[in-house]
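Much of what follows relies on a compact textual record of a protein's fold. Think of the row as the fold of the chain written in a discrete alphabet. An example makes this concrete, so a full record is given next.


***
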Amino acid sequence: MLTAVIRADGPASALAATFAVLIPAVADGFLGHAVVVDPGGKGEIERLADVTGASYLRAGAAEGWHLGAAQARGDWLLLLSAGDIPQLNWIQAVERHLMLTADVAALMPLRGVAASLRERAALSFGPRRLRAGLIAPKSLILAGRLNAAPRRLPVRRERAEL
């Protein structure tokens, strides 16, 4: 089962946009749980998490992914920032990755050449830190970093401008 860990460091409308895209995955049984990590402690973020059935966690940005992973129910995690919107067919791309390459992290890159190149450089040349767009086993997220560069998925994600 896949769990989404969403860092909500923006407005509630950005989180609502991300939830709107995740609902079909919940309906299909592909996404079983969501954890919202709120570094700002905003009441509207907590209410939105409650209304959607997601777990809510107030934590700083630095430890957010790790603490969100600790509360996740699934063995695989999808890390997102509020406002991230996976493109059409993202469920099929992630499902295929999970079936064919067990225990290998993947990246759903941001749409756009500049954003995609920045992500690729950060993952290839810098420390392999956790970041939005990663799909990885819970054990790697709990460890705090990836062992190898993730596989790039053929679908991208966009960032809602809210």
Notes: The chain has a mean pLDDT of 86. The radius of gyration is 14 Å. The first helix runs from residue 12 to 27.
